[in-house]
Amino acid sequence: MKKTFLFLIALICAYHSYSQNISQEERMKWWRDARFGLFIHWGLYAIPAGEWKGKPSTGLGEWIMKRSTIPVAEYEQLAKQFNPVKFDAKKFVAIAKDAGMKYIAITSKHHDGFAMFKSHASKYNVVDATPYGKDIIKALADECHKQGIKICFYYSQSRDWHEPNGLDNDWDFPAQRNFQQYLDEKVKPQLTELLTQYGEIGMIWFDTPMTITKEQAQSLKDLVRRLQPRCIISGRLGGGVETDYKSTGDNSIPAAVIREDWEVPATLNNTWGFRKDDHHWKSPEDITRLLFDIASKGGNYLLNVGPTAEGVIPEESVNILSQVGKWMKINHEAIYGTKASPFNPEFAWGNITTKPGKLYLGIYQWPQTGFYLEGIKNKINKVYLLSDPSKRPIAFKETYDRVNDHHLLKINLPANAPDKVVSVVVVEIQGNADAEKTITQQQDRTVKLPGVDAKIYKGDSAAKLNFISRAGGAEGWVDPAVNLDWQFKVIQPGTYKVDIITTETGSTENPSWQGDHVVKIISGNQSFETKIVPDSKEYNQRSQYWKKIHTNGGTVTFDKPGIYHLTLAPVKFSEGKTGFTFREIHLLPAY
Ligand code: FHN
Description:
21% helix; binds ligand FHN
């Protein structure tokens, strides 16, 4: 009876959906405007909270079943203890809203296979298998609908340690498996439930595709499109099937603007699911700067909390988010509905978001002397502080250097920063932001050359290198014949230090980095080899999740102002798993 009812609902939804023709623009509108969302990793793993039989489990809290090799029969028993009596959907939604977040993505089923919703496809769910007996997903979805925040469901489509036919449990189910059967009997029915029983869903957040084939991934995409054509599909569906946006690696923020839709899922400490021993909290200052930085690079920030087994979001997370929320209350205009900076690389002082007719300069380091913005071509109408309700004009001066075809805007900022974390200066411009396209030397004489902005050469033909990667730098640079080349404008001639920046990657608790690669730097008739080794000098790490490793790569000299090229050509890669995680080169004044 119930099955027939579900089938009928699915049929009605399908009919309704087919009659709507949703464009990609329409589907993505709310997500592009939102910029900031709350990720919630919550499941049975919150009970052991990182410790199994008195021993700390390694790695992420939600990975305890795999990391401590817990048999299904034993792990399942956790369901009998799951009773989150303190769970209050209203509070969860209030925490997100108070932080200025516009969407919530909650784990409806993580890799452990346990559904946080009532499922007819598997009894292993919060309603049928726990003393709590209530549908958590429903409570949260209802509250989100009530409070006008988008509800999204994380769903682990391939990795399922509970199912003999799901992927990745080789301690209980070492034998062959029928993955298609698992998709047909669990994944598709559960996705159908999620897409038909909880109203309008913002997004299905697929994760860890593993060996899913193109056809299998396409069938999941078709299912979502058929049942809810407005529902966004996350970047991790797999099988090479195109989805609605790109997902970077966990906690991996690109070095420069990516001019397509992208999102970074990120943590507040190291773990996603609650671990009682993880106290590696980021500061609210770091998170606020990261939020601004990600928006400036055109991305969305999906920031995680891991509630306890009782259903409480850890106090530390709530405090951090509420500090970010305080900043958002004053500065949200510089985040919601904005587009990326018209310039590609980061600035030493901060970064820029834009809207038609406006630039928002997010200043992290308030200048002691004059403040300059290079290369903005628009006519400027007015400059003021976003935090100033009366928008008192700030003096500025635009100049144009005809010889170097270079625009310079000088702003006479007040002596003190209005906000010690990120002060937002609004620059009203005529029309849409129009910036000089060529990478240009800054007033402080630095030139930034991000990997994403390089021309990629393999011999004479361009090759594909992934810079939106897990590493937050180049991924898969295995061929030393692949070269990167940048063109840039030098305004102030002189000798410059070549600062080669690579990044750590791997797991947050145990990051990895590999050096000893030999690379060649070529600029005009200057050419020399250098080894990738950590520079002893301490650098400002600029509020990132991963440490950046700087290598002093020698010096280059530019005799006169003008357009120059610099090529990075690997000579030999050292052996190892992590590879050459190249991110960017900075040219810094040597004297
Ligand atoms: O394995 C998961 C992990 O547990 C967590 O859910 C993150 C969130 O992006 N995704 C996977 C690893 O990339």
